[in-house]
Design a protein that fits this description.
This protein is of the alpha+beta class. It has 6 helices and 19 strands. It has a 7-stranded mixed sheet with strand order 14-13-12-17-18-10-19, with no helix packed on it. Helix 3 crosses helix 4. The longest helix has 14 residues.
Length: 287
């Protein structure tokens, strides 16, 4: 049994899924379609150059490495781990109301050699984009501040006091929300906050149509669309769906497949009058 993680859901399950089918990966060249998304997600997470290299990585794992991998996941999934939702480009606090009488360091789980904050009883040092108030530290509060949140800063953060884990915090971002009212024939633009590996899905307003319909998957500069959208969808810094029509009314969702997180939702209503334009919902709207 492996407890559910708040930060490595896709990584863990894709990894275990692939580990259970190493024989098929060894004999499948190129990998069969059912493995390709798993391999792409894994290659992004491990910063491996390609899905092919990820396949080789998996098939070369031995029992010792698998044991080490499962052990690392158990550490990540500690019941003490908190999850914090921030807003894009805003300041966020990663709470750690614990005292440290020695050397305090904050790092990210995926980049443990890069120290973000280092504090002693004498002073605190912070990397660009982070801060920790020394006076608060002396009073027993080791909370880390992210000065300007962006997608590259999502992940698991760990505070250690003299190399012993003090706090673990998963940091992620609230989805961006947008709503638009358009007239028939107007293009529908779905903003892509990032394009490492995301998919765009559509839930129609008309309840008689199936929900969560896949429109396309975007990976870097590549876009692969479902048959109904091959002629209509294109990629810029958005996924643009041409010639909006009444059946396009509904909610469009952009999901980060690597981290299994919703990045953006766009609610679109297509109507017949001439009034159209963006309408923000809350302070996190984008245009």
């Amino acid at each position: 049994w492996i407890p559910k993680s708040t930060t490595t859901t896709v990584y863990r399950y894709e990894m275990l899924h692939l580990l259970c089918h190493t024989d098929e990966l060894r004999t499948s060249s190129p990998p069969a379609p059912q493995w390709q998304i798993s391999l792409r997600a894994l290659s992004h997470r491990l910063r491996i150059h390609s899905s092919h290299d990820a396949s080789l990585y998996i098939t070369d794992l031995n029992a010792g490495l698998i044991t080490l991998f499962l052990s690392a996941l158990y550490q990540v999934d500690s019941s003490d781990t908190q999850k914090v939702f921030g807003n894009l480009h805003e300041t966020s606090s990663l709470p750690c109301p614990q005292s440290c009488s020695g050397l305090l360091t904050w790092t990210m789980f995926e980049r443990q050699d890069d120290v973000l904050v280092r504090c002693t009883r004498d002073s605190c040092w912070s990397a660009d984009g982070f801060s920790l108030n020394h006076d608060e530290f002396l009073r027993g509060d080791s909370t880390l501040t992210v000065l300007r949140a962006d997608y590259s800063l999502r992940g698991l953060y760990r505070a250690e006091c003299d190399s012993e884990t003090l706090c673990q915090v998963v940091f992620t971002l609230n989805p961006l929300e947008t709503s638009r009212v358009i007239t028939p024939g107007e293009d529908i633009d779905v903003h892509l906050p990032l394009t490492d590996l995301v998919d765009v899905r559509f839930t129609p307003s008309n309840a008689t149509q199936p929900p969560n319909q896949k429109i396309c998957t975007v990976e870097k500069e590549k876009i692969k669309c479902s048959p109904d959208y091959v002629e209509r969808a294109s990629r810029r810094n958005t996924v643009q769906i041409k010639d909006g029509r009444g059946s396009d009314s509904g909610i469009y969702t952009v999901r980060d497949l690597v981290n299994d997180e919703i990045l953006t939702t766009v609610q679109v209503h297509v109507r017949d009058d001439a009034v159209s334009g963006p309408h923000s919902r809350g302070r996190r709207s984008v245009h």
